[in-house]
Amino acid sequence: PVSTGIDGSFCHPREVYTEIQSRFGGLKFADFQESDIGPGWHEDALAALLREIPRKQAIADWLMSQERWDAFMLLFGESDTVSHHFWMFHDTTSPRHPANAPGPLRDAIRTVYKTLDVALGKLIERAKPDHVCICSDHGFGGAGTHVLYLNRYLEQSGWLTYRRQVQVEGVRSGAGLADRLRGFAATKLPSEIQGKVFRAVPDALLGHIETRSRYGDLDMARTRALSDEMNYAATIRLNLPDEDVAGRAAAVGELRQILADWTVDGHAVVDAVHTREELYDGECVQDSPELIIELALRDNTTYTLLPSARAQPGETWRTLRPEEYAGGKGLGMNGTHRQHGVLSLWGRGVKAGAEVAANMPDIAPTILHLMGEGVPAHMDGTVLVDALDSIHGTVAHTAAASAPTMAPTSATAEEAEAIRRRLERLGYL
Description:
The protein has 429 residues and is of the alpha+beta class. Helices cover 37% and strands 15% of the residues.
C-alpha cells in the first residue's frame, strides 16, 4: 500500500469495502504519520493504536458472522508499530531509555498486547474454531545509539564513488530527497487521498524519481558495489557484468573481508555475510542483491542503517544525539526487528507443549494439512508434523496446477491492470 488508508481496490468482492465503510468507518493501516515525532506524538499514537484494535476485531466479527469460514486470517499490525516507537520506554536497559518517561508510555507495549489478547479472545469465542494459529514474521528488540552509513563505508573502501555532493533546500540529495518527498506525503496529506495522489503519478515518473533519489549521485561507471541502505534489510548489490563470473566471485570474497573488518569503537559491525544463493532458491533468486548482511548486536541492541546521502564523505558512522532517540520512519526507530518470531498452535490433534523449529514458509502447508487439504507440490515449506498427533495422518501432496486462465470477474480490465501495475511497483510481481 502507498497510503495509510484503503479504498475499494483492496477488497474482494468490492462491495465489502462499502459495507466496512458504512458500518465501521473504514479500515486503516494507521491513522497517524510516523515520520515527524514531536511533542505529544506518542500519546496520540498510543490512543490511535488502542482505537484500531477493537475496530479490527469488530470488522472480523462481522465478517465471520456472514458465513462459516474454512480459514480466516487477520493481521494486527499494532504490535509491530508500538514496538518500533515505544521500545525505548518499555526497555529500561535501552541506551535510549528516558528515566522520566510517563507510566502510560512505559506500559504502552504491554497495554497493546493486553488489548490484542482481549480481541483474540472475542474472535475465538465468535469463531469456535477447530484450530488457532498465532504467528509473527519477526521478533523485536531495541536499537542502540550508533548509526551506520554503508555506502560511505563502501566509498572509503574504494568500491563506490559519488560524482557530486548536492544540497537540496538544505538537505543532501540522494535518498534524503526521496525521504523528504515521502515524508511530505505522509505528514501533510490526509490518509484518504495519499493513495490517490501516489497512483495519479505515472509509473515511469515514479520509477525515474526512485532511481534518481537512490542512485542519482553515484558515479556508476566507477562504482562496483552499492547498497539500497534499507534499515530492515542490509544488502549489497554488485555493479559488475553478469558474464564476469570470476570477477563477481572475487568481489564477493573481497567484500566479505572488508565487511568483517568494519568496526565501531572496537566493536565488529557485521555478524555474517550471506550470498543470495546460500539463502534462496527458485526462479527469482537473481532479483535479490548479491550479498545479504546480518548486522551484529551491540549490548543486545542493533545498529541503525541510514542513507549515506545524509552523511559527509568519510563519515561511515556516528552517534545519535538525545533529541534523535525517538527516531521515526527513515530516521532510525528505537525498536527494531529480530530474526526469530513467535508461533503458537492450538486445537484438535496439536501436541500440548511441543516445541518445533519453524520457518515462515511452514505455516501455510501446516494449516492446509490441519484442514485436511493436500499441500500443493509447488509450495515452499513443510508441515510441522512434530507438533501434531497421528490423527491428522500422513501429509498428502497435490500436483502443481497451472495458473488459472479465466479473467477475474470482480474487477474491470482497467482495474485489474491498475492492480497489477501497483503490485509490480511494490515488488510483489
